[in-house]
Amino acid sequence: MPTVHFRGRQIECDRGAVLRDVLREAGEPPHNGNASWANCRGIGCCGTCAVSVEGPVTHRTKMEGWRLNFPPHEERPGLRLSCQTLVLGDLWVEKYPGLWGHKTSDGAPDTAPDECRCDVDDDALCGTDATGGRGSDDSDRE
Question: Tell me, what's the pLDDT at 16?
């Protein structure tokens, strides 16, 4: 069973579970402030459940790729919509400040590293390509 590390907690879940659902069921919603009730309820269009993720997850969906390229978000490795992300192994998840959770503690947008740091050998599973960047934005959930 994968373990999701979030806000100082270790949350066990089934492989293939939707990250947003895992966090909410554990009483740890992936939203900040009013976004807890003012969000798209998991269809991937609002962007308020964006989190930084390290570990094996599925590729970005089309909706997620679109949303993360639309302000206030910017395309960058590691930032994922928890509602569009399936857990494939142990994860380390961080939520940044701001309504959309897109700012680091200094107020600047997150600048995650360009390479995957998970321990999955299969690039197709962890969502990285051979260059260490994120996989294709037009991949759908498996």
Answer: 98
pLDDT > 70? residue 129 = no
Q: Are the C-beta atoms of 16 and 87 separated by less than 8 Å?
A: yes
Q: How many residues does the chain have?
A: 142
**Token pair for residue 119?**
């321990």
Torsion-angle region of 46 (φ positive above 0: left; ψ -120 to 50: alpha; else: beta) = alpha
Round to whole Å and give the CA distance between 31 and 28. Answer: 9
Enter the tokens of residue 101: 């959770």
Q: Could you report the per-residue pLDDT of 31-81, keeping only the tens digit for each?
A: 998 888 889 999 999 989 999 999 999 999 998 988 988 788 776 778 999
C-alpha–C-alpha distance, residues 6 and 4, integer Å: 6
Q: Two tokens at 110? A: 């997150």
Antiparallel, parallel or unpaired: β 3-6 and 50-54: unpaired
100 neighbors 47 (Cβ within 8 angstroms): yes
Candidates 121, 64, 71; CA nearest to 100 is: 71
Segments of the chain assigned E as strands:
3-6, 9-12, 50-54, 79-81, 91-94
